[in-house]
Design a protein that fits this description.
4-stranded antiparallel sheet; 41% strand; mainly beta; Outer membrane protein assembly factor BamB; 3 helices; 32 strands; globular
Length: 405
Amino acid sequence: MKSGSMKRKSLGLFAIAAAFAIAGCHSFKKENIQPPTPLPDDFKPTVQVEKLWSNSVGEGAGDSGVRLRPTVVDGVLYADSTDGKLVAMDAASGKKIWSKSSKTHGWFGWGDKKRPDAFYAGGPAVSGDLLAVGTLDGHVYGINAKDGSPRWEATLNSEVLASPLINGGLVLVRTQDGRVYGLDAGTGERRWVYDQGSVPLLSLRGNGALLAANGVVFFGSDDGKLVALRQDNGEKLWEQKLSTGEGRTDIERLNDADNAILLDGTTLYGGAYHGNLVAIDGPSGRPLWAHQFSTMDGLAVNGNAIFAVNDESQVWAFDKNGGSDLWKNDALKYRWLTGPAVQGNYVVVGDLDGYVHWLQTGDGALAATKRLSKKAIRAQPLVVGDVVYVEDVEGRIGAYRLSTR
């Protein structure tokens, strides 16, 4: 059994005892913890939202607990599903350009029907004509983004739950067992691997995406740290603790920091469960400020504000220069929101009942609500230009634009 199996086993047991702490397990939260705040019957939107299109990709994430998020490159939207579907759509209309299924001819079209299908996870990454995508059974595929034909495959040690990152001739991949890999973008050959070493047995389900800039790869770890690696060889440059993991129980000591981080100028922003929202100088790793804040999701930045969702699904805005809080909205409390995205002058989040919500960036007031489906939305919305793309757990993708009428 691969090295990631112990962690997967522990997560399964942990889900039964403490499902509220596992990002993505919204159904448990809905049944066992606080009921979601009802949406007001008399709500009147202050901005009009136009739904451009919706389409589906296989069965989506299903019950896997992963957060599948599409990507858009040069007007094409790429998306995948855990049941082996991979598609390219016109981002403006939602019409499919090509579609591939790993179930059609065995494992991703190579014809070996004795091997399992590709259980895609984390969402695809695209750069030029290369598409890279990972799987729940520890593989990464290099694929021709123009037509979906296979190029190469790489076998890793554990699940790939985060989207790969293509940068500087490498496909950068993190796995559920705490490793980060640098794979050759042309062949899939392993160039280097960074091994975190000890990975906590109890942690949140999933990994945040890697971030690369100026020859450095950044990520938040399962043990509450923000880590910087050299991109050319995987050597660790520095790390900063985002959470102390203090408490009397295993749940209280849970201090996962592997949600998404972001870079604004030369400043990194990151957060941790049972930890802090922090700002760090990227080149040196020097902490700039910290604000106690527990989050399981990604962050967004706009102007002088950082937007985040805490572990009770309250949406917050902080001053990015000093970390002081600007506003808090609890109208969506316990609706188990996604991480935030910024579309124009609005913060966009999805919730456990398939609703998409827009909040004003200035004061956090709820401005609009649209329902994509009746299924949970777990992945952070994706904003490209003036359009936001949202995906639910069953693979339904919707595109929305703020109306000027």
